[in-house]
Amino acid sequence: MVHGLSKLHRRDDGAAAVLTVLLASVVFVGLCALVIDLGLARDTRRQAQNAADASALAAGNVVYGSDGTLSITNAVNAAKFYASRNYGITEADWVACREASPRRLPYYVGTQECVSFDSATKPTTVRVKVPTRAVSTPFAGIWGVSSVPVSAVAQIQFDTGGLARCGLCVIGSGTHKLQVGNISLNGASVAINGTLEANNANGTIRVTGAGMGINLQGAAPGTGTYSPAPRANQPPIDDPLISLVMPNYSGLVVHTRSCTQGPGIYVSLEACPGGMLPGLYVLTGVTGGNFGIVGNGVTLYLVCSTSGVPRPCASPAGEVGGSLSFSGSGYMNITAPVAGQPNAGLAVVADRNNTAILAYGGNGYASSGTIYAARGTLQYNGNGALGTDSLIVVNDFSFAGSPSAFVSSYTQEKNVTVPPSSMHLSQ
To answer: pLDDT higher for 134 or 371?
Structure first.
């Protein structure tokens, strides 16, 4: 009898061993299934994050056009295109996508709240939430888990320039002559590469507006008046309009009577105190003198020429092309085209290799819109004064006589928008 019980005991041991193996196998298979399914979900999550990053960057790259025009619609469409291309997101997915505040940024278009912006008028942040996708988990079904929700978020920030950097931007590396000149700027900063000439006993630079200042690549001369105190030895600023598309003058013809013939190609402009017709005026010679020029919705484009035919100025050495020179009772009062028109916000622009001088003497210049002369010099003599709301980007400036002055109350809406820079993923 004892022998029989011993055999029965051994049979129980075998059954337990088999049961243990079976249970271990189930656990092992379940763990393997979990690893496989979670691995699939993790891979999908990586794809979702890549799509979110690409979509946010794409939106940031087109939210401002090459001419600085804001287009939220273009940004939303770019984000959706890259999400579709990289992750297969459909329009129906976007319609169903939701993200609650405060994670969602304050502004979005219609029901597209998963592509949001920090502002409807001057965005500097774009947030993209990729719509949630349910990743099937067939192996983990034995644990009662049939799918895993996967989504991703990316947020970018960038600098829109203008207020963030400078309203008067002197980008040349040489020595700039302020002398007895007076620079007064409200609503933006002054940034000057190179150095200020030491002979600056009566020169003044005054900047007002929250967060605005005076940034100098070199040291500030010991003389002169500065308010607030300048920040010296700063890194040089880059040309904030380096990506600005130059005006297109194809289709324009040569004219001689700028007061009546309107937009076209001119050696110089004639006196026109009654106002020029709106549009683009391409100048190949010297315009100015002891007379007045007035125009609303006007852009002046200073270029080089051969036998009167406009062409780009020589590179890299630079070349003198069309220029401005007002003296005596001469003055120029033009207003740039507005948003939606060609060359919006651009009042005076020189070919990027045009080394000409833009000289304001006499009664000077009191206009609206951006002045851009990347290789040119802005010069003020005698009573020359610039009362404006302009963004000014020049290679050099030179003041002489008194009360030569640059006076501006910077208004971004009246100027070209500086294309975004320093774009980076912030989340």
So the answer is: 371
- Output phi, psi for 280, to 5 deg: -100, 130
**Is 163 in a helix, a strand, or coil?**
helix
Residue 245 has pLDDT above 50, yes or no: yes
| HEC-encoded secondary structure of 1-70 | CHHHHHHHHHHHHHHHHHHHHHHHHHHHHHHHHHHHHHHHHHHHHHHHHHHHHHHHHHHHHHCECCCCCE
Give pLDDT tens digits for 117-138. 998 888 889 999 999 887 766 6
For the chain, the straight-line distance linking the first and the last C-alpha, in angstroms and rounded, comes to 77
| 8 Å CB contact between 154 and 56 | yes
Q: Are 148 and 370 in contact (CB under 8 A)?
A: no
Give CA–CA dist 224/217, Å, rounded: 17
Mean pLDDT of the residues in the chain: 83
- Residue 160: per-residue pLDDT: 63
> Which neighbouring-strand residues pair with 265?
254, 282
Enter the pTM of the model: 0.68
Q: How far is CA 53 from CA 77, 96, 98, 129, 156, in A?
A: 15, 20, 18, 10, 8
Nearest to 205 by CA among 197, 193, 213: 213
CA pair distance 159, 375, nearest whole angstrom: 24
